[in-house]
């Protein structure tokens, strides 16, 4: 069961969060809740308890505290804050900094790409798609869920979570 949650559920939810963020600029709460539920199943099936479990939950709580503050100041969206925290529970403290650095680099590249795209007229073929019009609008933010998801998928194979799955 651990391999199903880590190899199927986790990447699916990351990809879904990224796609929803691009298409709607919203990450549904259900994605973060399903990530938490998936982690609970993973923890139970691999025997993750005690200090190890507390450490993973602490990584999520610390990330939520920081990202909620960023949300309160209007720097990131609420869905991004919740997605980062739910993902941090999977990542744990052992590679949390790696996750945040990779997501930040991906977010910077995504932001630059969107700014460059916005500096040019939107191709007429894309003008038929509401999400493309919305993304091209200078008043619209950046779908940072894409960067958070990419960071998670890049870093997760290096974590203790992955090692636990391989051992079970």
UniProtKB/TrEMBL annotation:
The keyword Protein transport does not apply. Residues 8-112 form the Prepilin type IV endopeptidase peptidase domain. It comes from the Bacteria. The chain crosses the membrane at residues 33-51, 58-76, 96-117, 138-156. It is a multi-pass membrane protein. InterPro entries: Preflagellin_Peptidase, Prepilin_IV_endopep_pep. Keywords: Cell membrane, Membrane, Transmembrane, Transmembrane helix. It is found in: Cell membrane. This is Prepilin peptidase.
């Amino acid at each position: 069961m651990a391999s199903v949650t880590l190899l199927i559920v986790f990447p699916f939810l990351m990809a879904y969060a990224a796609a929803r963020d691009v298409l709607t600029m919203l990450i549904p709460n259900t994605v973060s809740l399903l990530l938490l539920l998936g982690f609970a199943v993973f923890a139970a099936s691999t025997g993750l308890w005690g200090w190890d479990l507390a450490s993973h939950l602490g990584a999520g709580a610390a990330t939520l505290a920081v990202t909620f503050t960023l949300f309160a100041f209007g720097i990131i969206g609420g869905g991004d804050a919740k997605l980062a925290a739910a993902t941090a529970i999977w990542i744990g403290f052992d590679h949390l900094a790696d996750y945040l650095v990779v997501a930040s680099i991906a977010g910077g590249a995504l932001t630059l790409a969107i700014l460059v795209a916005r500096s040019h007229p939107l191709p007429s073929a894309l003008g038929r798609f509401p999400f493309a019009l919305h993304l091209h609008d200078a008043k619209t933010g950046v779908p940072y869920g894409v960067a958070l998801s990419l960071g998670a998928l890049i870093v997760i194979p290096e974590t203790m979570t992955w090692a636990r799955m391989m051992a079970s």
